[in-house]
Amino acid sequence: MECLTYVEKCRTEYIWTIDKFSNYLEFYNKLETPICIKSGKFVTEMNNEMIEWNFELQFNESKSEYNDWISIYLFRLSPGEKKINVLFHLGILNSKKEELNFGSAFRGEFNDNSLGYGKDKFLQKEMLIKNSRELLPNDCLTIICNLVTFDEPVTVSRYIKNKETKYDEFIDYKKLLSDPALSDVTFIVGDKEMKAHKAVLLARSPKFAAMVAEKILDSAEKNHVHITDIKVNVMEALLKFIYTNEVDNIDGIVNDLLDLADKYKIKDLKEICEETLYLSITDENSAKILIIADRYHCEDLKEKTINYINKNGLDILATDEFEVMEKNHPHLITQMYQMLFMQRNWN
To answer: Where is the chain membrane-spanning (predicted)?
Structure first.
């Protein structure tokens, strides 16, 4: 008997706009007790369970060490005993509708009695006042949160019948992947042949669509395409995602898979690879991840990684990977300093 362990997750973007924010900066100054502004409720779904959340923006009392700062915390509102793990990243939108990130991603474990998770030093009051035209367009503060919720790991036996899922096109694609009888193109990687269908490739990848339009696949001898620069398990993972929209156990091949996702312009797979890389970030590998993000034009991953390096700079400067980046990719060092100086000017 085999078992399967999996974790459900849900991505949500939440935007909170507070009008006439200069009034708050003026009225909530030199407080004797902290005062909070609560956002509206927003909902995430996990295993058909609706979970309610909100944010609290806190103006701190004058005696607090955070008096000059505005704090922000995320709260779970829905009751429930089940623990929910959350990874979220906070920023604000400037006058150009650009997202300005403040700090690294936050992690929290929420249950029925959880306290809020967030940042004590989120926005400095003086920074907002000095840069109000840029940071408070039309006297509005617009906070943006990118939030990923993770359920507790679940282990089930393979013979247990899975619950029914909503119909989508991947149900039929999965059948095609397991039945190569109607395939019309064969990829040869090493000594392994992998059957595929031009129509599916065309529907899922703009790059494959171009190859079909230009009859590149047709021109291959007997519709056989030899690939010499891809490992077998990486190509298998790519085809599995194309046919099923699913991918697993990619930690060891995420760099190669990101290369393919970028090459064949498969946006969803590229985003999964970016998220996998960021969740694995450490002081030792952060410079390497930044190089990868730059190479494949992963702008969100690049910005988050630069923020991580700037925050933990002293520990990272001594790593071998940082020396490699400094020697071979000096433009990234320049971009790091630019972002650091920009943030310091706001502070």
So the answer is: none
